[in-house]
Structures are given as structure tokens and as C-alpha cells.
Design brief:
Layout (H helix, E strand, L loop, with lengths): L2 E5 L4 E5 L4 E4 L2 H7 L5 H11 L9 E5 L4
Antiparallel strand pairs: 1-2, 1-4, 2-3
């Protein structure tokens, strides 16, 4: 199972690269290019993106299988 990070209320998804974090409106693209294999890794990357983000307010971590 994998996870994706969704920014709310923007309705955008993370696409992490080696040097930066991109974003996309496409959930499908986020699953293909931005999949995290570990929940903790997804959460850590969200905090790296912006340290003051609050889970449930600024972002969610979704299962790639749901939706």
C-alpha cells in the first residue's frame, strides 16, 4: 500500500523529487509520481515542505487505494 499527501483547502497533491517538492491537481499523477511507501515518510515530507503545517487542517495523508 502507498500514501499520497494532499494539501487542503487547495486540493493539490505532492510530487516529491530528489531536490524539491512539486505539486499537481491530479490525484492519479500524484499516485504515479508522488507515492510514499510509508505513512511516516509522507508525514515527514509534509513537515519538510512547511514546518507549520497542521495535519487535518493544512494537509491529509491518503491511501493511494482509496478515493
Amino acid at each position: 500500500m502507498g500514501y499520497i499527501v494532499k494539501l487542503i483547502p487547495e486540493e493539490l497533491y505532492f510530487i516529491p523529487n530528489d531536490c524539491e517538492i512539486g505539486i499537481t491537481e491530479s490525484r492519479e499523477k500524484a499516485i504515479v509520481e508522488g507515492l510514499f511507501h510509508d505513512y511516516a515518510e509522507a508525514h515527514a515530507k509534509a513537515k519538510l515542505f512547511r514546518k507549520d503545517m497542521i495535519y487535518g487542517v493544512d494537509y491529509l495523508i491518503e491511501s493511494a487505494q482509496s478515493g
